[in-house]
């Protein structure tokens, strides 16, 4: 066997080896995405908190670091992020190419001609993700986690829980209604309702007021793939920026050997365009930029002469043209800090909406905003779907944080799920007995709308539905003149301020249409 045959055999064996690793990566991606969806489905369908819920947030170093910086404390539940940091320092951006459900989704969203269009985008745009990372860290230094709305795990979680899954359930329900009139489909529909409802499908239809905005935001990120494969990962993702910086000093990195024949096959295959071409005398091999490589294995598996391999690299890589300079980094951190100052001193921060009702156990608004990572996990698991994402009720700093809207759904008196799933501890983990004593707001009775007060009509629904043992809503029997001029005796409700916890059950069950005659408000606003 001659030398050429030996080299060809070696190349084929090497390609097969890396081809297997590529298939392993794809399998891990699928399993990771299925696990992510499974954990969401558990909470979504049953309304009960899973003990494994939030594992992707706990492995996420961006949410962990910023939440700990903003909260000024070590958060044990988020200590798992050290695993991701350790793997990144060892192998590079494994998280981005193997684990991240957002990255997996973007891998599968492809548009024809994206490779040609991406060639027209300046590499300097890659600096945006680093700037966004530094802005996020700068705001966290002053206790604000507003920019975590751009974290990839929060983005895909928020979109899935508030848009995709509710839309899926609504579609299935409407399809069942349409088909049930045909006897042939009735056994199958009955089986779905008896077997899957409450296990895979939720018992109630959830709805979120801001779902259209959340959907447009998520769909826009997917649409950017038309400009370049994984556009979000390349240019915008702050978590990718953090892991990219760490990858510069990773111990094992992909390396192109000197025998590279400059066929450029690896360049055309790389979905991140992380390979820099060297032209000229054709002696110097192409280079792989570790901070941009997500270890997809495509170049390793498809290299025709096995010129790419993993090697120990003890020295950091050289800075790229899009890497922020020291001055740019300091300016970005300063801008983030300044942004946090402005958000914390605006009118909305000083005069919060009186209808802004936080989940049980949240006592200090500033402390809550310094820990909430805008992930929507609590909204997903809320049994009544009363927790809704805010828009401007808490100012821009509180964008897409949870707000209890009792008219849509009250705080279930026998539920502690939101505190159980909160990955950062923004919503405290409480036992049921303690949770039932947590004050979220105060019910305020509008006598001009209340049936017994304004219309001399019998109604004690709010008193009957109040779950507090000693009744925070009570009634007093009085004699009133009805609309015919006669005297009638009826019971008029009133609120006992010291007993009301603001759960909103009275507001939810008030029979008045549209605006309830009894509404929960922030105690600080009264």
Task: Please explain how this structure is put together.
The protein is mostly helical and 526 residues long. The protein has a domain at 439-526: 2-Layer Sandwich (Alpha-Beta Plaits). 45% of the residues lie in helices and 9% in strands. It is built from 24 helices and 10 strands. The chain has helices at residues 3-46, 55-58, 61-71, 81-91, 94-99, 101-108, 114-118, 127-141, 152-179, 186-196, 211-223, 231-236, 238-247, 265-269, 298-302, 326-344, 347-350, 365-369, 377-381, 417-421, 432-435, 451-454, 461-465, 505-509, and strands at 252-256, 275-276, 287-288, 308-312, 387-389, 402-404, 442-445, 473-481, 487-495, 518-521. The strands form 5 sheets. Strands 1-4 form a two-stranded antiparallel sheet. A hairpin with a 5-residue loop joins strand 8 (473-481) and strand 9. Helix 3 runs parallel beside helix 8 and helix 8 (127-141) crosses helix 16 (326-344). The longest helix is centred in the first third of the chain and has 44 residues, at 3-46. The relative contact order is 0.12.
């Amino acid at each position: 066997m001659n030398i050429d045959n030996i080299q060809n055999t070696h190349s084929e064996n090497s390609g097969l080896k890396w081809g297997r690793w590529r298939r392993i990566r794809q399998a891990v991606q699928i399993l990771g995405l299925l696990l992510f969806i499974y954990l969401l489905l558990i909470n979504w369908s049953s309304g009960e908190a899973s003990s494994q819920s939030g594992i992707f947030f706990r492995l996420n170093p961006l949410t962990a670091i910023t939440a700990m910086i903003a909260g000024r404390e070590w958060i044990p539940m988020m200590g798992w992020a050290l695993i991701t940091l350790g793997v990144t320092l060892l192998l590079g951006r494994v998280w981005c190419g193997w684990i991240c459900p957002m990255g997996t989704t973007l891998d599968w969203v492809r548009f024809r001609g994206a490779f040609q269009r991406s060639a027209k985008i300046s590499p300097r745009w890659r600096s945006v993700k680093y700037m966004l990372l530094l802005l996020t860290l700068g705001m966290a230094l002053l206790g604000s986690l507003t920019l975590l709305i751009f974290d990839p795990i929060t983005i895909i979680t928020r979109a899935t829980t508030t848009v995709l899954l509710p839309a899926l359930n609504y579609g299935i329900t409407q399809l069942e209604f349409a088909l049930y009139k045909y006897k042939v489909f009735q056994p199958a529909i009955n089986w779905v309702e008896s077997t899957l409802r409450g296990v895979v499908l939720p018992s109630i239809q959830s709805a979120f007021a801001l779902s259209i905005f959340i959907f447009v935001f998520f769909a826009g990120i997917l649409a950017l793939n038309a400009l370049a494969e994984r556009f979000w990962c390349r240019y915008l993702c702050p978590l990718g920026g953090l892991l990219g910086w760490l990858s510069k000093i990773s111990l094992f990195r992909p390396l192109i050997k000197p025998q590279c024949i400059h066929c450029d096959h690896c360049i055309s295959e790389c979905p991140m365009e992380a390979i820099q071409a060297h032209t000229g005398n054709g002696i110097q091999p192409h280079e792989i930029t570790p901070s941009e490589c997500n270890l997809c294995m495509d170049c390793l598996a498809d290299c025709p002469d096995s010129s790419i391999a993993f090697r120990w690299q003890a020295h950091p890589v050289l800075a790229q043209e899009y890497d922020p300079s020291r001055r740019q980094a300091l300016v970005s951190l300063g801008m983030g800090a300044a942004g946090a100052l402005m958000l914390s001193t605006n009118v909305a921060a000083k005069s919060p909406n009186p209808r802004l009702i936080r989940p049980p156990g949240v006592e200090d608004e500033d402390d809550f905003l310094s820990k909430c990572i805008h992930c929507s996990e609590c909204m997903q698991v809320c049994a009544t779907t009363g927790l809704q994402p805010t828009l401007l009720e808490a100012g821009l700093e509180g964008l897409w944080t949870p707000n209890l809207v009792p008219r849509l759904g009250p705080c279930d008196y026998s539920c502690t799920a939101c505190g159980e799933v909160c990955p950062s501890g923004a919503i405290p983990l409480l036992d049921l007995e303690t949770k039932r004593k947590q004050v979220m707001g105060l019910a305020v009775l509008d006598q001009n709308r209340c049936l017994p007060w304004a219309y001399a009509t019998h109604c004690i629904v709010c008193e009957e539905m109040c779950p507090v043992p000693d009744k925070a809503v009570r009634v007093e029997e009085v004699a009133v003149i009805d609309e015919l001029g006669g005297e009638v005796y009826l019971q008029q409700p009133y609120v006992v301020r010291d007993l009301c916890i603001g759960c909103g059950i009275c507001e939810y069950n008030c029979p008045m249409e549209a605006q309830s005659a009894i509404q929960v408000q922030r105690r600080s606003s009264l």
